[in-house]
User: Which sequence fits this backbone?
C-alpha cells in the first residue's frame, strides 16, 4: 500500500515547476497579461517539450498513456506557476474524449497531433454543465448551430469538441465555415476564454458519445480534477508567499509572522489546504481505478477545493496587507486563477448537487447505501 | 423608539426634493475637476445648506447647526437622482474638520473655503511602505532649515495624489522623541519641487493609489497644524472620521437589492438562480446580516442625535463587519453568475458593468485598508472590551 | 428620531436582571435543573411581581398593553439569567392569540388571569411551522384529536392554544378529558418541553383564526422575536463571561485575554453580537409599527440570531478552556438555552425559506420589488 | 499510488475475519473490569497477535513486527462485529510505549504485561487547574524524603481515575530549575493513602473526568521513569501519541453515513430533510470535508508504512481539523432534526440514543481538550510553517 506520488510523478512536478520558475517569472506573466502572445507561446513550447500534451494520449497514437494522477500533478504545477498555456481542455479533456468516443479516423487525425504538440483542441461543455444565457447547440444533419460559452483552451485552437445538453460531443474544425469567435474578457489574464457562435457549421459526432452520458461525464470529471489541481497548486503558492512575506515584513518592531493573529491565519490556511493535496491524489486514483467512487470524488474535490481556494486566496491576500492588493506583487494572478477555476465546469453549489444525484439521495431510502456505525460514536 | 424624523424634517425633505427636481438637468460629466461649472455647483449646494451645512459662514460654509438627520435626508434625496453629488474626499472629510479644530486662523482662512468649493483638492500622506498597521513608526523626515521645512521620504496609498493641489502629511520632525511624540502634521503644496508621484497598479486593474516621493521638498515653516511633535494627536481626530465612513448601510442595502435582482434575472438551464434553494439560502443569510447592519446603523444615527446612548461597540465594529459583509455579498453575486461572473472590463455579456468583480476585489482591499481587520479586532478587544494591549516585547 | 430603548424599557430590563442575579443564581439554576420545582416556582412568582405576565394583555383586561419592544427587552433579560420560567408562550404568544382571535368570552376568561399571573397558557405551533413525526391535530365538531410536539410553556399550564396545519388556533383546557401529557427531555433544563396527545378533547376555536393565517403568523412572529431576544441575552452573557474569564485566567505567565488569539475570538463574538441588539429592537418596532416589514424582520432576526448564537456559544465555551466544559462553571446552561431557542418555532433554514416566501422570491420578476442602485457601487 | 494492501494482507484479513466469526458469541457486557473473563479475552487477542502485536513476548506482547496495515485490518474487521474490542486507554496508548522506550527493566517487567492484559488500569496525571495550555507550569510537588517521593498537589481532567490502579504523573521535583527542566515522571499507585478523587460533572451530563488531590502521598523513590527533571521529555513522546489518535477518519466516515441515514429518515411535513436543498447542500459540504480528511488519513497511513514521505503538516493538522469537522457534522444532524434534535437523555422520540447532542458537546470538549485548537494553531504555524514562537514577555 502506497498513497502518494511516485518518483516519476514527483519528478515531473518538479521539472514543470522548475521550468516555470525559470521561464515564467512574474514579469513574464505580467507581459502575457498585457497581451504579449509571443511570450505565452514560448512558455507553451517549453512545456510541450516537457511532455504535457501527450500524457493522456494512448501509446498507439504516440502518447504516454499515463494515468490521471500524472495529469493532476501537471495541472497542480501549472497552477503554481499561473502558467499561461492550454492544458485542462486541450491536453486532458480533449484526448480523453477522442480516445473514449472517437472513430479510428478521428483518433488518427487528432491524437498524434495532440501528443506531438501540433494541435490544440478546445472543449466546450458549459451547456451540459448548466447553460447560461440559454447558450445551446443543436445538430442538424452534419452541421451544428448555436452558441457555446467558455470553451476551454479554445483561443487559437485547431479544433473544438463541443457538447450539447444531452452530452453528445461534436468535433469541429476551427477553420470550418460559419464559426465566429468572440473573446470573453475575464479576471484571469493567464488563460483566455472565448465564445463560439456557430451557424450551420460542419461537425463530426464523436460516435461513442451518442446516447451515452458516461463519456461526457468521464471527460467532465477529468476536467474538474484538473481545475481542482490547478487551484490547489495556486493556493499552495499563495499560502507559501503569505508565510514568507510575514517573516520579512516588520511592523511594531517585529515580523508580522510573530503575531498570533497572522500565525493563526496561516495555520488555518494550511489546515484547510493540506488535505486537498491528498484529496486530489485520491480522486485521481479513483478516476482510473475505482469507477464506483470516481464521479463522486471528482465532484467533491472540485467543490471542496473551490471553497478552500476561495478562502485561501482571500486570507493570503490579507496577510500581505496593502501589498497584496497591488499588481507589483502580482498575488492577484493566483487569486484570479483560483476565482476562474471555481466557476468553470460548475460552481460549487452546482457540483455538489451533482454529487447528491450521483449518490441517489433523491431516491434511496435510509440505510440503503450507507453502513450504520457500530458502537459508541465517542470512541475516537 | 421613534423612527419618524418628525414634521420639521418632513418639510426639509420636501424642500430638498424640490431642489433636486429643479436641478435634475445639471450634468457635470466631462467637466474637469476645479472647473468653474463644478465650483459653481458646489457653491450652490453650500448656499442652500446642502453641503458644509454646519461649517461657519466665515470659512465658506452654510453656517447652520449640526443636524445629522438633515445631512441624512440630503444624502437620501440626492442618491435617488442622477444630479451631481456634493464633493467628498479626504480634504473635506478629514482635513477641514482638523483645521477647524486645530488650525490657525490663517490656515482656516486659506484652506477651508477653497476646499469646500472644490478649488483645492487634497491628498493624505500618512502610510509609508514600512509603516502600515504600525503607522506611528513612520520615517519620512522633516527638518527645519531657517523658516522652511525640508522633507525627505516616501508615502504610499495616497489616493488622489495625481489631482491634488495639497497634501496633509505626517512627518517625523523630532527623531529623538518616542515614536508617537516625534511626528508633525504638515501641509504640503503638491507643486513644490522635489515631489514625484508614481501610481500603484492594483488587482482591480485600476490605479486608485500612488506612491509619493519627497526629495528635499521645502515648504514654509508655518505650514504646520498644531505644535511640533503633536502630529499624531492631530491626525487621530480625523482617523476616527475615516473609519466611520467606510460602511454606509444604505449603499449596502442598495447593493443587496441589486443582488436580488441579479439572482432573479440570472438563469441556469433556464431556471432562475433565485429559485435554486442552495443559492437562495446563501442570499437569505446575507440579507439577515445586512438587516442586522442596517439596524446597527440606525442605532449609530440615533446616538449622534440623542445624547447619552452608549454606542462604543456599535461604532468600533462597523468597519470590520461592513467590509467583510460587502465582500461576501459581492462574492455571492459572482457565484450566482457562475462562469459569467468571471467576466470583466469590457467583455461581451458583462453584467452590471463588471461591478461585482470590481467590488469583490475592492472590498478585499478595504478589508485590508484603513486599518486592517486584524487591527480592527485589536481595537475592538482593547478599546471596547477592555482587554489588554499586546505586551511590550523587549527591543521592539 | 430615537432608536433605542426608552427609560421605562431600560429600567424594566435592569429590574429583571437584578432580580435574577439576586434570586436565580447559578446554584439556583442547578437546583432547578436537578428537578427542584419549588425553586422555579419561587423565581416565577418574583417575576410575576415585576409584571412579566401582563405586558401583552390589553388594559381593559387588566394588562399593561405595552408594545413588542417591552416584551423583547424582558425576554432578553430572562435569557441573560437563564430564567426557568414560562414566558414566550404563556405571556406573549398566548395573550396575543387570545386578543387577536378570541371571542369576548374567551378573552374575559383568560386574559385577566394571565395578566394577574393566575393562569399559564401553553402554546403549540409546531405542526404549522413544520410537522415532525407527522404530529398533527384534526378538529371534529367541538373536539380535537392528534398530537402536538414541543408545546411551549405547557408544563403545568392551565390551558393550551394549539394550531393545526392551516393555522387555526384551538383553546383547550388542561383539565379536559382525553389529554395525556408526556415530558420531553431536552438539553435545556431551564425550560421544560412537553408533548400532548389528544383523544377527542373538548376544544374551542379562536374564531378570528379561522381561514386567516394572519393571526397565527402574528403569534408566530412574536414567538420568534422572543426566542431571538432570549438568545441575544444569553449570548451577551456568554461573551461577557468569556471576556471576564480571559482577564482572570493566567497561562504562560499572562492573562489569556492578552493573547491575540483570545482577543480576536472575543472581538469576533462582539462584532457579530452587537448588531443583534439593534436588530431585535428594530424588528420589535416593526412588529407594532411597520406591518410591511414585520414578518420579514421577525424571520430574519430569528434566523440570524440563531446563527450568531450558535457561534458565540461555541467560541465563548472555547475561551473558557476545560472549565467551559464543566457543570461547575455552568456555562452550558446558556449554551443549551441558545441551542433550544435555535430549534423552536423553526430552525434557521426553515425560517429563511419563510423569509423568501414573504418576499415572493418565487414569483416576482427582477426589479419588481427592489430599487436599483444609483451610481458607483464603490462610493462608500 | 497503490491502495491495495496486497495478497499477504488479504490472507491476514481472511484469518482475522474467521477469528471474528468464531468468537462472535463472546460477550463481556456486564463483566467487571479486570475480571478473569476480560483478562482471558485480552490474553487471547495477544496470543493471536490481534493486540500488542509488536510488543516483545518477554513483556507480554505478541512479539511480531510492527505492521500498521495489519493493525488497521484488525481494527476494521473488529469494528464490523459486536465482539469485544481490544482494550484501549491511556495506559496502553501512552504509558506502555513510554516504559518500553524509557523505563527500567524492572518497570517493564512490573507493568507492561499486566497493563496489556487489563489487570492494571492507568490514569494520566498531567493537567492542573492552573496549568492547562501551559502544561509545563505545573506545580504538584514531589520531594524526595529518604527512599520515598512525597507528593502534594492537585491534578485535573484525569479521565479514568475512579477505576485506575496506577497513575503516571508529572510532578515538579526540582523547583529551582527552569520550568521545563524541573519535572519528573512518576508512577503512583492509586491506593496510596492521601489520594482523593472528585468527579467533574460536565456539560454532557456525564462525569468522564476527575480532579485528583495528593496530600503527603508517599511512593518508592524508584517509581520514576527517566531521570529527575526529565519528565517533560518523557511525557512528550506520549503526548504525540495522544494527538494522533483523536480523529479517526473511519469513525468520521461512519458518522457521516449515519447522518445521511438520519437525513433520509427525518421528515418535515412529510418531506425528507435530505430532499430539502438547503440542508442537503450543508450535508454535501460536510461530506466534501470528510472525504478530504479521509484522503489525508490515507496519506498518514501510507507514511507510517513507507519511509521518506514527509507528512509533518498532514499530521499536525489532524486534531484541529478532525475535532472541528466532527463538531460541525454533529451540529448539522441536530439542525436536521430541528426540535427533535434537542431531545436528550431518555426522552421519548429520542433519535440514535441521543448520540448527536452528546457528540456535539463532547467534540466541543475535544476542541478544547488535548491541547486547545488555539494551541494547535500555534503548533502548526511554528513547527510546520516555521513561523516564530510568541516572543518572550518580560516577567512572564
Assistant:
Amino acid at each position: 500500500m502506497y498513497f502518494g506520488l511516485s518518483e516519476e510523478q514527483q519528478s515531473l512536478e518538479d521539472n514543470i515547476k522548475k521550468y516555470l520558475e525559470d521561464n515564467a517569472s512574474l514579469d513574464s506573466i505580467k507581459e502575457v497579461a498585457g497581451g504579449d502572445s509571443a511570450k505565452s507561446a514560448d512558455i507553451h513550447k517549453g512545456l510541450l517539450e516537457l511532455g504535457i500534451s501527450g500524457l493522456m494520449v494512448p501509446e498507439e497514437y504516440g502518447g504516454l498513456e499515463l494515468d490521471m494522477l500524472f495529469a493532476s500533478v501537471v495541472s497542480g504545477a501549472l497552477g503554481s506557476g499561473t502558467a499561461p498555456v492550454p492544458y485542462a481542455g486541450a491536453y486532458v479533456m480533449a484526448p480523453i474524449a477522442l480516445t473514449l468516443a472517437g472513430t479510428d479516423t478521428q483518433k488518427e487525425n487528432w491524437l498524434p497531433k495532440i501528443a506531438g504538440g501540433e494541435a490544440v483542441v478546445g472543449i466546450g461543455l458549459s451547456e451540459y454543465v448548466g447553460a447560461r444565457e440559454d447558450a445551446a447547440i443543436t445538430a442538424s444533419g452534419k452541421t451544428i448551430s448555436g452558441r457555446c460559452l467558455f470553451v476551454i483552451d479554445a483561443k487559437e485552437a485547431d479544433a473544438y469538441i463541443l457538447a450539447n445538453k444531452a452530452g453528445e460531443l461534436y468535433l469541429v474544425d476551427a477553420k470550418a465555415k460559419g464559426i465566429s469567435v468572440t473573446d470573453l474578457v475575464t479576471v484571469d489574464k493567464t488563460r483566455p476564454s472565448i465564445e463560439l457562435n456557430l451557424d450551420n457549421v460542419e461537425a463530426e459526432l464523436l460516435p461513442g458519445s451518442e446516447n451515452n452520458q458516461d463519456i461526457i461525464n468521464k471527460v467532465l470529471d477529468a476536467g474538474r480534477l484538473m481545475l481542482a489541481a490547478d487551484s490547489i497548486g495556486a493556493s499552495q503558492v499563495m499560502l507559501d508567499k503569505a508565510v514568507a512575506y510575514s517573516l520579512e515584513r516588520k511592523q511594531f518592531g517585529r515580523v508580522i509572522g510573530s503575531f498570533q493573529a497572522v500565525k493563526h491565519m496561516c495555520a488555518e490556511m494550511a489546515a484547510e489546504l493540506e488535505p486537498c493535496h491528498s484529496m486530489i491524489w485520491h480522486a485521481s486514483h479513483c478516476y482510473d481505478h475505482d469507477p464506483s467512487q470516481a464521479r463522486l470524488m471528482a465532484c467533491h474535490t472540485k467543490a471542496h477545493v473551490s471553497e478552500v481556494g476561495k478562502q485561501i486566496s482571500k486570507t493570503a491576500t490579507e496577510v500581505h496587507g496593502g501589498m497584496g492588493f497591488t499588481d507589483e506583487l502580482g498575488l492577484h494572478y493566483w487569486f484570479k486563477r483560483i476565482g476562474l477555476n471555481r466557476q468553470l465546469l460548475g460552481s460549487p453549489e452546482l457540483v455538489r448537487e451533482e454529487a447528491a444525484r450521483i449518490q441517489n439521495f433523491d431516491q434511496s431510502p435510509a440505510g440503503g447505501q450507507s453502513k450504520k456505525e457500530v458502537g459508541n460514536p465517542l470512541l475516537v | 423608539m421613534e423612527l419618524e424624523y418628525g414634521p420639521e424634517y418632513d418639510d426639509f425633505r420636501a424642500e430638498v426634493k424640490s431642489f433636486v427636481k429643479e436641478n435634475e438637468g445639471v450634468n457635470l460629466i466631462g467637466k474637469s475637476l476645479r472647473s468653474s461649472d463644478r465650483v459653481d455647483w458646489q457653491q450652490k449646494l453650500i448656499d442652500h445648506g446642502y453641503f458644509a451645512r454646519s461649517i461657519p459662514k466665515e470659512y465658506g460654509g452654510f453656517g447652520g447647526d449640526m443636524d445629522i438627520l438633515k445631512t441624512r435626508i440630503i444624502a437620501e434625496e440626492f442618491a435617488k437622482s442622477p444630479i451631481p453629488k456634493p464633493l467628498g474626499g479626504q480634504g473635506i472629510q478629514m482635513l477641514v474638520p482638523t483645521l477647524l479644530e486645530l488650525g490657525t486662523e490663517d490656515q482656516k482662512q486659506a484652506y477651508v473655503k477653497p476646499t469646500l468649493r472644490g478649488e483645492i483638492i487634497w491628498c493624505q500622506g500618512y502610510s509609508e511602505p514600512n509603516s502600515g498597521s504600525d503607522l506611528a513608526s513612520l520615517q519620512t523626515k522633516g527638518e527645519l532649515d531657517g523658516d522652511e521645512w525640508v522633507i525627505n521620504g516616501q508615502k504610499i496609498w495616497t489616493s488622489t495624489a495625481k489631482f491634488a493641489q495639497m497634501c496633509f502629511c505626517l512627518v517625523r520632525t523630532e527623531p529623538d522623541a518616542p515614536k508617537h511624540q516625534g511626528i508633525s502634521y504638515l501641509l504640503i503644496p503638491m507643486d513644490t519641487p522635489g515631489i514625484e508621484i508614481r501610481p500603484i497598479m492594483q488587482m482591480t486593474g485600476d490605479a486608485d493609489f500612488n506612491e509619493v516621493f519627497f526629495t528635499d521638498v521645502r515648504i514654509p515653516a508655518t505650514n504646520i497644524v498644531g505644535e511640533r511633535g503633536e502630529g499624531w494627536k492631530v491626525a487621530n481626530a480625523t482617523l476616527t472620521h475615516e473609519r466611520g465612513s467606510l460602511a454606509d448601510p444604505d449603499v449596502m442595502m442598495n447593493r443587496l437589492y441589486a443582488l436580488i435582482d441579479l439572482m432573479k434575472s440570472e438563469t441556469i438551464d433556464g431556471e432562475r438562480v433565485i429559485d435554486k434553494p442552495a443559492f437562495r439560502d446563501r442570499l437569505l443569510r446575507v440579507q439577515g446580516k445586512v438587516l442586522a447592519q442596517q439596524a446597527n446603523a440606525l442605532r449609530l444615527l440615533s446616538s449622534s442625535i440623542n445624547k447619552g446612548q452608549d454606542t462604543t461597540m456599535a461604532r468600533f465594529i462597523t468597519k470590520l463587519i461592513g467590509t467583510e459583509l460587502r465582500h461576501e455579498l459581492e462574492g455571492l453575486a459572482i457565484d450566482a453568475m457562475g462562469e459569467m461572473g468571471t467576466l470583466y472590463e469590457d467583455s461581451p455579456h458583462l453584467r452590471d458593468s463588471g461591478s461585482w468583480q470590481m467590488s469583490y476585489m475592492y472590498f478585499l482591499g478595504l478589508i485590508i485598508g484603513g486599518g486592517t481587520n486584524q487591527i480592527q479586532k485589536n481595537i475592538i478587544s482593547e478599546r471596547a472590551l477592555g482587554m489588554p494591549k499586546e505586551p511590550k516585547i523587549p527591543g521592539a
Summary: The two ends of chain C are 24 Å apart (CA to CA).
